[in-house]
Amino acid sequence: MKIKTTRRMMMLLALVLVVSIVGVACGNKTNNANAGNAGSTTTEPTELSLGLLPSIDEIPFVIAHEQGFDQKHGVKLNIQTFKSAKDRDVAFQAGKVEGLSADLVAISIYNEAGLDVKITSTTFGEFDLFTGNKEIQDVKDLKGKSVILSKNTSTQYTVAMMLKQAGLTEKDINITEVPQIPTRLELLKNNKADAAILPEPFVTMGKTSGLRVLSSTKQAQVNPFVLAFPQSVIEAKPEAIRAMYAAYDDAVAYMKSHDQKDYIDLVIKEVGYPENLKDQIVVPAYIPANQVDVKEVESAFAWAREQGLLTKNITPEDVISNVQFKK
After folding, report:
1. What CATH number was assigned to the domain covering residues 127-220?
2. CATH number listed for the domain at residues 46-124+223-319
3. Residue 268 to residue 270: CA distance in whole angstroms
4. Which residues, at least 6 apart from 193, have a Cβ–Cβ distance to it below 8 Å?
5. Bigger pLDDT: 310 or 40?
6. What are the angstrom distances between the C-alpha of 289 and each of 50, 57, 193, 294, 300?
7. Would you call the peptide bond into 201 cis, given omega within 30 degrees of 0 as the criterion?
8. 24 — pLDDT class (breaks 50, 70, 90)
9. pTM of the model
């Protein structure tokens, strides 16, 4: 009897030992798995693709990626730069980019076409209205004059707002449509038109060529520039989008705390400034990312309706996302 009892005790102890060993092993596996997952979160951040145009509103995103601010916040920005809005739109509709630098007129057109595209923030772009005609000293002097722009775009909308502030309408000018921005500058320099609206780097190039600025988006307090994502991407990657904006703000802080010479070569490369204008380039005083103004959306959409670009009953609330900013 004692022998049987002893055997049972030994078997019980052996069983307890086996269970303990298995438990420790399982615990180690779980810990190792968790450690592996934690490591993958750090080393493999979520990728977010952006379709941007070579302009000044692209710079904070580029610096955020170049300085590694994006991966610090757990997102990897895949920035694709397109030479024209048309090329960007083709890539966007093909699903090759998730977010894109756009404008309020484009947002109205996307949603008119049934694309559920939302504004996630405003961006820091700029258009300037130039002239080389000595008789034109103010926007109001453009009455009866020729103005070069691209129709049904934010450039036409911006000119319309500048004219409105000067007491004129688009019917008071002669619009010449030239989508190619370099061509606009050359025509203006050769006195083939009275005025033209240009973005950077052509703003700096125009100034160094002796052309004069009649107005600008800053002066007119018009800002049609935005960053947008399809609603499907916003729902799938909200944390990645928020991380992108954290990286954007880091880039803005970086530019404020560093001399322009520390990043000017990157600006020249991305925006397309000629090397010989390096000393003339003025990098904007960027501010942290923020949401678009509802009144800006209302104004742009009202103009789009006047042009027949927007027929649907779409409100600012329908196109503004609160994934990062509340409005």
Report:
1. 3.40.190.10
2. 3.40.190.10
3. 6
4. 146, 147, 148, 176, 184, 187
5. 310
6. 16, 11, 37, 16, 21
7. yes
8. very low
9. 0.83
pLDDT at 85: 82
Residue reference for tokens 């034109």: 136
Distance, CA of 193 to CA of 183 (rounded, Å): 11
**Any bridge partners for residue 318, and if so which?**
none
Q: pLDDT by residue (tens digit) across 257-286?
A: 999 999 999 989 888 888 888 888 888 899
How confident is the model over 148-189, as pLDDT tens digits? 999 999 999 999 999 999 999 999 999 999 988 899 999 999
Give me the torsion for CA of 93, 95, 98, 103, rounded to 10°.
-10
pLDDT band at residue 110 under the 50/70/90 scheme: very high
pLDDT cut 70: percent of the chain above it: 87
47 touches 76 (CB < 8 A): yes
CATH 3.40.190.10 segments of the chain: 46-124+223-319, 127-220
pLDDT number for residue 327: 62
